[in-house]
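Box S1 | Example of a co-folding query
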Amino acid sequence: VIGKAANVPPQPEQSGAGGDQIPGHVAIIMDGNGRWAKARGLPRAAGHRQGAEAARKVIRAAGEAGVQCLTLYAFSSENWRRPETEISDLMGLLRFYIGAELNSLHKEGIRLVILGDHKAFPADVAKMVDGAVARTAANSRMTLAIALNYGSRAELVNAARRLAERAKADEIAPADINDAAIEAELDTAGLPPLDLVIRTSGEHRLSNFLLWQAAYAELLFVDRLWPDFDGDALREALSEYAGRERRFGGR
Ligand code: IPE
Ligand code: IPE
Ligand code: MG
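Box S1 (continued) | Returned holo structure for magnesium ion
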């Protein structure tokens, strides 16, 4: 057996709680609400409502499975391109769900964090979100990160800008900028390393989601539309993940 060479570069951290088989951090691109509604002759809003139900189920199932962190892509920075009526339906849904779910999330020991810039949302929604984050801040059973007005490129641009400002102020040298320094400036700073990205609805793209964080994540694309996703579908995804061999460039 060859021993560890002194100059082996740092290995990406292994995943967190639950052992090797359970991913420490799962992120989901919840896609297909519109197609789900269309297939039933329903308005898109009905698809989003059913999608919120699916999210509720999946949050519970992830907690029960021992996933340490679950990230849900709820609204991208590009989703502002949708018609105003759809955006306002989504904001209404967010209002409703925070109101209805906050108590039980809190009771279940779930800590809520936000990725992206939710301050661009209507003031009352932004305030509700801040309240929910503050109320659940000390919880530790699972972290639920919701990506709201999130875009990975904007996140990286902001990180670069902050590091440039600190270099200009002589707080750091350009040579100090490494993986860890960049990671510390991302919205995901402090969250466990990303292990698994799931996208529903049969689309095979990342749509500006966690581009840096997904560098060595396992990617799983499933055909099921998001409103049809549930605890069983999540458990299936986790078992698919458990069968994957991760190499991180080694052998
Ligand atoms: C995902 O479903 C929800 C959001 C992006 C907010 P879509 O609304 O994108 O549904 P499709 O892709 O049109 O079916
Ligand atoms: C990605 O889905 C964003 C969310 C799920 C919130 P989209 O439906 O917006 O992505 P594209 O437009 O198909 O790439
Ligand atoms: Mg879509």
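The longest helix spans residues 84-107. Residues 30-35, 75, 79, 90, 201 surround IPE (ligand 1) (CB under 6 Å).
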